[in-house]
Amino acid sequence: MFWYNGELVDGESLCLNITDPGLIYGATVFTTLRVYDQSLDHPLTHWQSHCDRLHRSIEVFGWQFPDWKRIRQGAALLSDYPVLRIVIFADGREWITGRTLAPDLEQRQQQGIRGWVAEDTLFQRSLAAHKTGNYLGAWLALQKAQQLGAQEAILIDSQGNWLETSTGNLWGWKNGCWWTPALRGEILPGIGRSHLLAALESQDIAVAQNEWTPDFIEDLEVIAYSNCVVEMVPFATILSPQGKLTFKTSHAALEQLRNIVLS
């Protein structure tokens, strides 16, 4: 069951014209949100923030705006799903799908995961400041990570600085402060990231944005990543060019961040 162009469709196939730019070039923008308590209006669902993200990208690209009321209607009909993906085509068509949470998400949140640093800039995202349908670089990085026994990939820039993961934003802890890579047009300004930054600052918890050079990463006590679906997941180990990095997933700072994610 999914929603497409104003209609609820019972099936698993979407019919597109063979000349559709969304098919040929990945000319779409999308956002993925977690629906809390089956409510688009739940504060943690961040419904308006997701709509604002889509609006900003559509405006920058000069595309046709969708019917926002119709998007809300489709999302409401699918809100039994805990995760919704809303896609907008260049001509304003909307496509909404739902899915379940990963069955091992809670285990990942508590025990941490293995990460892999994608050493090649081949894996960078196209138009990184926007969430477009051309996600090939990040997808390839995630496939490679999984082949190596990891669950998430970390993308880098041409100088080897860490940017973001294939699906979320990075967070690190050291010297009594939370750190996250600065945007600078190379990183998606994630909704979860924005919420965490604001929440940390409002509670007078030290947080800063900076460049994640290899030297900076070397002595981080904690590394985790966030997005709106997984909330926050720590890394237990990371396979990097400098060798295997190991972190405590029971660190007190992680519990602090978990609580803020859900505040």
Automatic annotation (TrEMBL):
According to its UniProt entry, the protein's GO biological process terms are:
carboxylic acid biosynthetic process
Q: List the Gene3D superfamilies.
A: 3.30.470.10, D-amino Acid Aminotransferase, subunit A, domain 2
Instruction: Cite the entry's keywords alphabetically.
Output: Aminotransferase, Transferase
Entry keyword Transferase: yes
Q: Name one GO molecular function term.
A: transaminase activity
- Single GO cellular component term: cytosol
Source superkingdom: Bacteria
- Cross-referenced InterPro entries: Aminotrans_IV, Aminotransferase-like, BCAT-like_C, BCAT-like_N, Class-IV_PLP-Dep_Aminotrnsfr
Q: Which family does it belong to?
A: Belongs to the class-IV pyridoxal-phosphate-dependent aminotransferase family.
**What's this protein's name?**
Aminotransferase class IV
Organism placement in taxonomy: Bacteria, Bacillati, Cyanobacteriota, Cyanophyceae, Oscillatoriophycideae
